[in-house]
């Protein structure tokens, strides 16, 4: 259906989609809250710091599953948007979540190397000693991509 639907008609005919609510909730609990638990339970030796961690695999699953749930949710909406807008929105969402995934992965490895999360990038002792100093700019860029751009897109 295309076109405007009266808001009072929408409320009368729009059922609560328990199945989608359940899948979003289950995914959130398993993949978001379960991520740090899996990282604590599974031995670090199984996931060397130069390879994806257990938490990274949880994030990857999130990036694969969520777009399908969002598409199903949009498909059931009484109001439709242009298909191109739906696709661009899903693509931006996945890109933002992926940027965040990469930032979290690198941040996780930095913490194992002595990075102090409560300090800014330039104030961290392990970052101060980087040579050449232009590498510090790269870590600040990574932080910007994760915390600002990635989160906004996500």
TrEMBL record:
**Membrane-spanning regions, if any?**
20-42, 57-74, 86-103
Establish whether keyword Transmembrane helix is in the entry. Answer: yes
Pfam families referenced in this protein's UniProt entry, alphabetically: CLN6
- A GO CC term assigned to this protein in UniProt: membrane
Does the keyword Transmembrane helix feature in the UniProt annotation? yes
A Gene Ontology biological process noted in the UniProt record is:
lysosome organization
* Keywords noted in UniProt: Membrane, Transmembrane, Transmembrane helix
Q: Which PANTHER family match?
A: CEROID-LIPOFUSCINOSIS NEURONAL PROTEIN 6
Its recorded name reads CLN6 protein
User: Native species of this protein?
Assistant: Crypturellus soui
Q: Which gene encodes it?
A: Cln6
């Amino acid at each position: 259906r295309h076109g405007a639907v009266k808001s009072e008609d929408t409320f009368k005919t729009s059922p609560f989609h328990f199945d989608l609510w359940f899948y979003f909730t289950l995914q959130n609990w398993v993949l978001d809250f379960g991520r740090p638990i899996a990282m604590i339970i599974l031995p670090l030796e199984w996931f060397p710091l130069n390879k994806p961690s257990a938490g990274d695999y949880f994030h990857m699953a999130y990036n694969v599953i969520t777009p399908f749930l969002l598409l199903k949710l949009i498909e059931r909406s009484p109001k439709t948007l242009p298909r191109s807008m739906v696709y661009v929105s899903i693509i931006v969402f996945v890109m933002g979540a992926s940027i965040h995934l990469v930032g979290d992965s690198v941040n996780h490895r930095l913490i194992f190397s002595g990075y102090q999360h409560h300090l800014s990038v330039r104030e961290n002792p392990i970052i101060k000693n980087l040579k050449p100093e232009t590498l510090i700019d790269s870590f600040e860029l990574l932080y910007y991509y994760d915390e600002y751009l990635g989160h906004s897109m996500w």
